[in-house]
Amino acid sequence: MRLLLAQLNFTVGAFDDNFTKMAAAVEHARAHGADLVVFSELATTGYPPRDLLRHERFIDLNLEQLDRLAALSADRPAILTGFVDRNPRATGKRLYNAAALCSGGRIVARRAKSLLPTYDVFDEDRYFEPATTVEPIVFKGARLGVTICEDVWNDRDFWPSRLYHRDPVEELADQHVDLFINISASPFTADKPDLRRRMIAQEAVTHRRCFLYVNQVGGNDELIFDGHSIGIGPDGRELLRGRSFEEDLILCDVPAGDDTPLPPAVPPLESGEIEDVYAALVLGLRDYVRKSGLSSAVLGLSGGIDSAVVACLAADALGADRVLGVALPSRYSSAHSVADAEALARNLGIGYRLVSIDGIYQAQLDALAPLFEGREPDATEENLQARARGALLMALSNKFGAILLTTGNKSELAVGYCTLYGDMAGGLAVISDVPKTLVYRLAAWINRDREIIPASTMTKPPSAELRPGQLDTDSLPPYEVLDPIVQAYVEEHLSADEIVARGFDPAVVADVLRRIDSNEYKRRQAAPGLKISPTAFGIGRRYPLAADYRALRRTTARR
Amino acid sequence: MRLLLAQLNFTVGAFDDNFTKMAAAVEHARAHGADLVVFSELATTGYPPRDLLRHERFIDLNLEQLDRLAALSADRPAILTGFVDRNPRATGKRLYNAAALCSGGRIVARRAKSLLPTYDVFDEDRYFEPATTVEPIVFKGARLGVTICEDVWNDRDFWPSRLYHRDPVEELADQHVDLFINISASPFTADKPDLRRRMIAQEAVTHRRCFLYVNQVGGNDELIFDGHSIGIGPDGRELLRGRSFEEDLILCDVPAGDDTPLPPAVPPLESGEIEDVYAALVLGLRDYVRKSGLSSAVLGLSGGIDSAVVACLAADALGADRVLGVALPSRYSSAHSVADAEALARNLGIGYRLVSIDGIYQAQLDALAPLFEGREPDATEENLQARARGALLMALSNKFGAILLTTGNKSELAVGYCTLYGDMAGGLAVISDVPKTLVYRLAAWINRDREIIPASTMTKPPSAELRPGQLDTDSLPPYEVLDPIVQAYVEEHLSADEIVARGFDPAVVADVLRRIDSNEYKRRQAAPGLKISPTAFGIGRRYPLAADYRALRRTTARR
Hints:
Number of helices of chain A: 18
CATH class of the largest domain in chain A: Alpha Beta
Distance between the termini of chain A: 67 Å
CATH topology of the largest domain in chain A: Nitrilase/N-carbamoyl-D-aminoacid amidohydrolase
Strand content of chain A: 15-25%
Oligomer: homodimer
Structural class of chain A: alpha/beta
Strand order of the largest sheet of chain A: 5-4-3-2-1-14
């Protein structure tokens, strides 16, 4: 059987634009003699549609989209696509996350997803009723074992513990299947492409069939879909691979109850972790801006490494001529900060402006002087400077219709080493899931061929420059210590005791955990950030605010 | 049987404080000869614990709390309480939302929740494995039909369509039950107390048994638990009622397979909608501040009705001496604005200061002048003023450790008639779920006995005063038109056609819906707000940002 796997970049709700893309893929399939075109999960709406699913009109638009695809299939190849189906019964959730096979101008089969991810960023139980049985779809005499994303993530032989009680792939295999197809919208994290490959290979080998896996590509808010569609043979060899972080139309001939020979294996994937993270962030940034209807960005350049890396990502994603970097020095800024910011902008070819905040800061201090009489300066005055910058950058964003990019990293967002409405202001937090140590590695990778980020930005000790001589290490442990503690608590949910047992100073652990807990209120109001780790701050991490975390982080170990 | 229903106000994670409260209730029960004390859902952790449930240490602390309660029961009344149980199996979610009966110093029965709400603000499928069967708990010869919150919300005779396939109450009734008990954490919305009463009455009458319903009370972040615990007799009469918006220990004698006579019915509930909403907001505000470890508040007083109502709520919740109102006039502020702000502060007895933003605004304009050359003034300059105010208010918050209260209402948050990092800045958005028309009704109710909010605040046309002569109606339809359109789209998810069919001008509907959709990015960064409606902005409403909403709101009707 000849198939076309359509790895496309959908905008949620953009029915017409998405249809145009899908129709072009179908046309490509026709031109190449394919029997079947396969689109990804919820291709009719784009994934994730979230609470748009609560609008009946949105469901109707999605069903109209399916009808348009069915009509296409009248004189073209058949189409397998994800869509939202209605649950006809009065009991249960109103909707199904479903797949339809369109052939000869009609919808000839519908199947619903069995396993509904409801963890991290996923809320599928919120919307969908699960299928309770599965059945192969017969197409041109072949029995297709069609599953949807999470359906393939519950193999008892692959996972030590399982979230679900059923294994739809096994249930399909028990009914005889000639070819497995999974349609997915599986977002990127650094380890995901390899994990998916191993998991699908295990299914292919266990059931001795080819297994095709079609993933969405593109950034949708916090989520970055990496593509990386794959096809695995019954012997576990990788037979095809979609591009990473790009659209791709992958034509393939695979056996499906017929005598199609197995294609040769593709060479092993060579991309490294840093490369993937960089590509993911560029895609996420580009798509967030584009799908928001914008085309340009502004950001503050402090001369530090975070804003330098974000500027590089923005120039790559949008084009250097669509990025404006602004240096916003104060009385506490060092001379090299402005020089480094300017050098970076010059190296990248982005726009550059300099606006001093000193007049505004002085006006703030003057206005507050009668109310602050007799009080010592503290973090309040530091925050004022950050907020003066935030307001100026937002003014540029408002005046020129450019998105303001926030440049804070995961480490500082974790411990609240950032100012709400100040440096946290912006439409997208590009590296808020990137720990500081990884920011350095990204910077080194950016500079691999030539110096784009100035050497002094790379080597100077990190500082917020909000008071004379300030260094990050005045308040925080070194990032090589901070980052693994943050990861242990935020991503692994370890206790203070368990973190101390990894060899960290108990007092440092206690202080870091206290900072993480007590800054939840800042993160609640943070800009959406691009997710690259298993647990990013944002929609996938949901903590109470007015709560008491002290017992949770208490150590039982003797000091 | 004599029971004590303990309607308590828990802080999530405050194990020791919560235990002290529970122990006092058990002591009260002992002193009054009760057989059984009943605590609400997840009483060991406080509800909702959200992602704290991902920490094994948190689960352990909750189990230790249960052990402490069990120990209490050694020489005191038995205890029925909600807690988090572990799922011992390797398949399924790791946890149960559970109830335990402690008696004679031991845990003698455990039951898990069957129906897990996963909609609106609820994410229970994210954490919990559902029970698949139910069984009465035998206590002192009586068969207790114990259910947990949502378990009672799926009666086929009460609801036209049902979210779940099972009815745990019916399943228990089929096994013979002498007394039904539901332990809940059911948050307030304006219609909820009456709905719960009718629903429980239907169960009691259907199964001809007393039905006791114990609810949590208190504010936990966005959610306000109203208490309103109830007991209904087999004849549908209301036999007992817990206080609304306050802790209560309700002692009651009810038949439970024994010859206890039915108590007399309580008189019908008399509180009105406005009274309830006001009380809910006061409780939500007080608890958010207190449970955040704070005790005082600051807010901007514009002379308008929104900030006036929030100031009244704050004075009521925290005490007038813990509230500071700040007038922040600019060159565009009318004289009466400052006079009204000052009069309000005087009427309430709260602190009052005046800080002009003109120096800061001028410094901002000066700093930006070279970059804005040749550009006309627009919303950018209006936002600058709002952000100058936000920064000053946050400085007061930072310097004095007082929470900044945001004063925006639901109508303006819906259409984005507000400035991110400006008037949207703050730790709690007190009335962000209160439409403007309801703000007026609250104000009238506040002034029912004497003028607290100045008459001119009540009568002048609403204005943001960000440019000369500006009125809200320059940009928006009148609030009597805007509010029902917002409600139809945001709460009822109606289409543009359906809203127009209610009699609104198609052009107005199109404009309002466009504003709602295109301001989702502001709401994503909004302060948490107190929920009083079925659909509040916040954790219970989840929309994509970089998406295309145009098809959704398109009308098919001819103009």
